[in-house]
Known about the structure:
Elements: E1 6-11, E2 16-24, H1 35-44, E3 66-71, E4 77-81
Antiparallel strand pairs: 1-2, 2-3, 3-4
Amino acid sequence: xxxxxxxxxxxxxxxxxxxxxxxxxxxxxxxxxxxxxxxxxxxxxxxxxxxxxxxxxxxxxxxxxxxxxxxxxxxxxxxxxxxxxxxxxxxxx
Length: 93
C-alpha cells in the first residue's frame, strides 16, 4: 500500500494545520489473557460447543491500513486509519 510521505493535517498539540510525516503502523494483536477471551475459552471448553452462532463471512475489498503521523513541529505522534482501502497487504515504509 502506497501512502504519501507527508500530509498536511491538524495537530491537536500545536492547535493548527501543520505538515506531518507519514509511516505505516503495525497494529498489535489481541492479548490472549483478556477477560472476554478467558471467559469465551472457559465456556467453549468441554462438550458444550461454541456459545456464539457462527457469523456469515463479510468480504471486504481490502483492509484500511493504520498510519502513524508525526507532527513536523512538535513531534507529537498520532494513529489514524487511512481513508483508502489497500489493494495489497500494507507494507511498512
